[in-house]
Design a protein that fits this description.
The protein is built from ten helices and 18 strands. It has 352 residues and is an alpha+beta fold. The longest helix is centred in the first third of the chain and has 21 residues. It starts with a helix and ends with a strand.
Amino acid sequence: MARTIHSTKILLAGAICASALTMTPAWAVNDEPLAEGWAPSEWGADDKAGSVNRTTPEMVLKATRLVKQGKVATLGKVYQTGIPAFGTRGWRMTIPGLPTGGPFGEQELVYNDEYLATEIGQIGTQFDGPGHIGVITSKGHYFYNGRFLEDGDINAYGMGSLGVEHVAEIGFVCRGVLLDAAALRGVDRVPVPKESKRGDPGIITDEDVNEMVKRQGIDPIGEGDCVFLHTGHGNLWHPTEWDSYSPQEQARRVAATNAGEPGFGISACEYLASRKIILWGGDTWATEAVPSEGTQPFECHIKMMTKRGIWNIENLDLTQLVADKAYEFLFVWSPLKMKGATGSPGNPVALY
């Protein structure tokens, strides 16, 4: 009898352990995407690209007419070890071998390759694609156009129908609009918000957007535009001086960069969405204000990308455009066609 009881206890304990391993954590849920009908998008249930679908040949031709001086500004920052990055992200590149291979033939040819270990879609100058931002709902982890992490085509090796390559098939050729928030505030660097509410100078509102457009003497933001915010905060990671800083100064700047940032508040994001833009971005690591306007962190990310498919590009180098007061330009860029990736690195180009 004792042996039977002992065996029963072992079986029961094993069953409890097995059950614990398969239990899903009791997360809180946000059913707003389901209740408000965020899907299907206006481009249909099969769409995987989002608002870049708004691009027309007429918009492209109109944007090319903004090139008047023949100037070119590359907007990507340098990818290297030690750059500011969100959380534990990092860039680690090595050149194995030196040379990596060879020699070959009578001319003694040798070659070098690099080995890269990084969160390649979400580091440095980075594009947030369809698979980056989602919401936990009662039906699962909800992403753009009603897709879920639990869908059969999504796994640890790729985001399936949420992959960045679907956006890359179209790419971005658009009227670029620079909004100079530092000039609006009369400072070199807009301060990090101290309060999560409208009126804090670190939070850029819908009224601020309209005021910048007015002061800069440009046409109103319109359908198909790509809109970029300059706060000066990105210059903590200075585009040309980073290598001249001591390790201690670099560490201080990394900490200051990640301690919060000025940026768009939700009122500005909702306004930009109403104008039917196709891309938003800035010189910071989130583009939106951190802490944000209101109680929801990264609300612009959710309402712009998950809800509407208006993607975001971060950590841009806008210094040349600011110096030249190039508030309108032809913007050209496409994510890399990395199957199933959540985003993409890149070096966008502005022509004016």
